[in-house]
Each structure stands twice: as C-alpha cells, then as structure tokens.
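In response to reviewer comment 3 from the previous cycle, which asked for concrete evidence that the modeling workflow produces usable outputs, we include below a single protein chain processed end to end. The sequence was submitted unchanged, and the resulting structure tokens are shown without manual editing.
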Amino acid sequence: MKPIAPLLLLLLCLCHCTKQHEKNTAGLTAFRSYTEKGSRTLRLADSIDRSKEFPPPPSPFPADLEERIGEIVKPAQERLQAVFSKDETGMYKAYLRDIERFKELKSPEESGKALEHIKATYYTFIKAAWKKAAINEKEYQLKIINALPENLKKNIVFDPEFLGFKISGGARKPDQDPPPPPPPAPEPLKCVDGKATIFEVPYTERIVGASATTMLEQGRALFVTSLSFPPGGIAWARNLAGTDVTIPGTFADDKRLIRIKKQFEWRTAATAISGGWVSVAETGYQSHWWNWDFSIKVVAPVIWFSEFKATWDLGYEELVEKRYLLNIRYGFATYTSARTLPIAVANGWSLLTIRKWELCEEEPQ
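The workflow returned the following structure tokens.
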C-alpha cells in the first residue's frame, strides 16, 4: 500500500523516551545547507533499488479521518468566514498572505520566526473573530472524539483554543518506563557496527502545492522535510536506514542469536496553520520494522495553528534468531507529511541521529 494516496496520511505509535538531549547543531547546519541547495547530497548506494526490502508499517488511522473532521467542523468554518467577510481592517487578508509566505522559507529557524510573527500580529484579531462567531468548542470537541475509533479516543489532546488538536496511536505508551535490562549474557562471539554498512531507502511523494525531501547525512543521520501550501496539496517524505548484514557472510548461519542494541536522538517539529480550512501535519520514527514507535498527527481544523516539537534520546534492544534477517538488517526510519485545503500551510521536519547500532552474536541460553 502506498504511504500516501489522496485522502490518506500515514501514522503512528510511541516508544519509551528518557531525557532530552542537547541540540544537534551540526545536524541542523547540514539540514539547512541541504534544503537551501535543493538537491540530494551525501547519498549512499543510490544505484541499488532497495525500495521493496522493508514493508511499510500500517497506519492506525482511518483513511478518511481528515474528511470526517472536515465535515464536522464545516459549520464552524462557515460561521467564522461570515465574520471575516465583514472585516474592514485588512487583517484577515494580511493573515492569509503571511500564511502563504511559509512556502518560501528554507529552514526550521525561518519557520519558527514566521510563526512567532503570526502569534504576535494576529492573535488578538483571531480571538475576537472567534468570539464573535460564537463557536461552541465543547460541542465540536465531542463530535471529533466520537468520529474516532475506540482505540484512538483516549489519545487525542485538544489545544486550549480554536479546536486545534494532536492525536497519536500505536502499541507503545508515551510515558512507559524503559524495559528492564536483559540478564547477563555470555561474552559476544562477534560484534559488528550497523553504521559500517548502512544504506538508505528514501521515499517522497507530492501532490499539487507541496514539496518533500529526504537525506542521509554522513552515514549516521536521517533527515526528512515536508511542506504543503496554497492552493492545497499533500506531501510525504520517509527515509529508512538498513544495514547490509548477510547470513551467511557477516555472521555464520548457525543456532547462535543476535542481540541488537540501538541508541539514537530524535528531533522533530510539525506545524499545521489554518486560514479557515483543515490543515494537517505529521511526524514519527521507527526503530523496528513492523510499526511506528511513535508518530503524531497535528490538526488545525478551523483557524490558527497547532504544533508539536520534540527532542528525545531513545533506545531499543532486541534478541533474535539469525533466521529473522529482516529484524537484523532493519535499522531506523523517520517520516513527516503535510496536507492542506485550500488556504492553509502545514510543514514538518525530522532529524534522527544514530548514536549506537550494535549487532552481537551470543549463545542461546
């Protein structure tokens, strides 16, 4: 199944996270340089097609979720547009122009400054229009919750104002404690560094007003960006890192096990900005192939914006038999996507930096 088709945005689930990490300024410098050049650089093994090696994880969301939300909030959108149609100050038109300028921005810093400008310039105006439209937020919140499957209803968090919300879904819990360490194991027979034979599997898709990029930087950091802008569009960007471990080859084909240890930092931001229509941004990461460890959908369904930011230190450990080569070769993935209709902007970026990726043989217990 393709990661994006019209009316579909892929997502989500969560892994344990520990403390925040210092900012990866070197990584963001490379990110800025890459987006400004607008071309793929530092690519490894481009000549090999690995796109079918790792199956994409399923989405926990209904394919028509955005359409459901759009139908629910349509009366609120119409009430607010009736207020804006009588605006004689020019503030609403200026707000829309500033939203459209997001498509020209080249870095997370520029996007952050533009969002701060919108907050400082238009909040009072939007708040007054919202009050004049007399929108019953509690009523709409309940309708949105009821439109979700039962397993997602508990995962929605509404913003304080303007019906913006964030929703996650998956097998892992956001505040779950790290699993206990494994019991003492015999001395490893052979260890390899997954980064030594790293390869990437990039994927992007863009429809109408959208852009998306991927990058593998110096064999240790995965970048993705997405942007959707007027007159509306869909963007999807995913990058995946695998390791070219073979059995037999790298390891002997025998009854010994492989212990996989991963440590990595994930930094991300996703922002949905509405000019009066639905805007959606998403971001997430994986450390195993069968589902997303964490992903989140950020929605601004009527006006204003909603955003998500994170800087997390993460880890994953797995003990597998050598016959499970897919588990052994799979490393990490990160994605971001954006969708807007029609005067709105959504953007996201994600940077996954690999700290440790160790694969070690050990005898069965």
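Helices lie at 25-37, 65-84, 91-100, 108-133, 137-146, 150-153, 325-329. We consider this sufficient to address the reviewer's concern, and the full set will be provided in the supplementary archive.
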